[in-house]
Amino acid sequence: MSKRKTLVVGVGLTKFVKPHSKNWDYPEIGLEAARNALEDAGINYQLVDAVVVSHVYGESTSGQKAVYGLGLTGIPIFNTNNNCSSASCALMLSKILVQSGDYKCVLALGFEKMDRGLTVKWNDRLHPSQAHFDYMRKLGVSAENIPSLESFTSDVLKVYAYGAREHAKKYGTTKEQHAKIAYKNHYQSQYNPKACLQKVFSMQSIMSQVICAPITLAMCALTADGGAAAVICSEDFMDKYNLKSKAVEIISQKMVTDLPSSFNGSLLSIGGYDMAKKAAQDCFADSGLSIHDIDIIELHDCFACNEVVNYVNLVVDGMLTLMVDWNLKDILLVLLGWHSVPRLLISSEEMLVYGK
Ligand SMILES: CC(C)(COP(=O)(O)OP(=O)(O)OC[C@H]1O[C@@H](n2cnc3c(N)ncnc32)[C@H](O)[C@@H]1OP(=O)(O)O)[C@@H](O)C(=O)NCCC(=O)NCCS
User: Fold this and answer.
1) Closest listed residue to residue 14, CA positions, set 5, 23, 28
2) Which of 105, 270, 336, 343 could tie 233 with a disulfide, CB 3.0–4.6 Å?
3) Mutation pick for ligand 1 pocket among 88, 202, 220 (CB with most ligand atoms within 8 Å)
């Protein structure tokens, strides 16, 4: 039996701001994102028949608190927490709910209120990522904290920095290539009024302030406060409310957690290399498409080197030079043009869903 279609018919964002820089709380953040998505879809909250909320920091049922601002309609509200992939999980679960046929219109909502750096809130129990950090040390990575960083942030950064070093050895990636990725991403921020930092940085300033080589400060995603939401619906719902002109179909979305190969002696694997590859392969198998059908890829770029690693991982060896060493402004203009006609949403759900 062919699967029911799932369509995104509205999206909304708040502006992202540095932690502690604005006096707002998560219910306001969530509400603003949700309202923006509903407004974009042009539908009333009364038509939503379930909400899947994602956040990492905060108490249980924070989702209900945020969504109740839209009204008390009694619909199911699910909370999901999966580190960097939390928002994609909310999207995926919303899609599955619609696909089940039991729900016609589901709101996927994500919000976060963070600290500077990543923080650990529960110190009386085993951290879920500990096995990964221990394994990283077993492979020779120093246990010493990166100066001025809290130990969890330090370990997360090391996962990617040491993975990038292994990648450089294997593929000859250079620090200039990492810097070009960060340059491109910062350059793009000037066109995005919702971005936390809207500033173009020179290659020279990007390459200064090394935190843990090859990662420099300007190559890190900032921690930030903000929210995002999407309205997902069935084909019947789309037709009934005349939403076809806004609809983008989710052709395939897959999630992968650790594989036996995550612990195969490679620092790249600890950072999610194999999981990302499998997620993409699963999407291709599910959709019947191949890499040659893809017009644009949007990657998890928590650190510039992670984007580089996944270019090679998801695309093909040799593509890296083509993508990174071209005239970046030209590439950007092409990418910005393509953004308006997305054909496939790929979610590479590899990041830190650690729990071994
Ligand atoms: C890198 C990190 C530790 C820096 O945190 P911090 O020391 O608190 O730094 P701040 O956010 O206060 O920024 C300090 C300065 O550097 C700047 N800065 C921070 N990140 C930057 C970036 N990526 N590019 C350019 N400038 C940056 C800030 O704008 C700030 O400048 P200002 O003093 O002029 O305002 C933090 O952003 C972080 O943990 N990022 C990684 C998040 C992460 O791991 N995500 C998940 C990965 S899977």
Assistant:
1) 28
2) 105
3) 220
d(CA 36, CA 228): 9
Q: Tokens 């350059």 identify what position?
A: 187
Q: Which of 242, 243, 20 is nearest to 113 (CA)?
A: 20
C-alpha 209 to ligand 1 mean position (Å)? 11
Record the pTM. 0.89
Identify which of 36, 59, 20 has the alpha carbon closest to the alpha carbon of residue 109: 36
Radius of gyration of the chain (CA): 20
Asked if residues 184 and 332 have their Cβ atoms less than 8 Å apart, the reply is: yes
Contact criterion met (CB below 8 Å) for 97 and 52: yes
- Cα-to-centroid distance, 228 and ligand 1 (Å): 21
DSSP code string of 22-83? S---HHHHHHHHHHHHHHHHT--GGG--EEEEE-SSS-TTHHHHHHGGG------EEEE--G
List, for residues 208-246, the tens digit of each pLDDT value: 999 999 999 999 999 999 999 999 999 999 999 999 999
Q: What is residue 265's DSSP assignment?
A: S
pLDDT band at 315 (very low <50, low <70, confident <90, very high): low
How far is the first Cα of the chain from the last one, in angstroms, to the nearest whole number? 35
- 240 residue type, one letter: K
Residues in the chain: 356
Contacts of residue 278, defined as CB under 8 A and 6 or more positions apart, other chains included, come to 256, 259
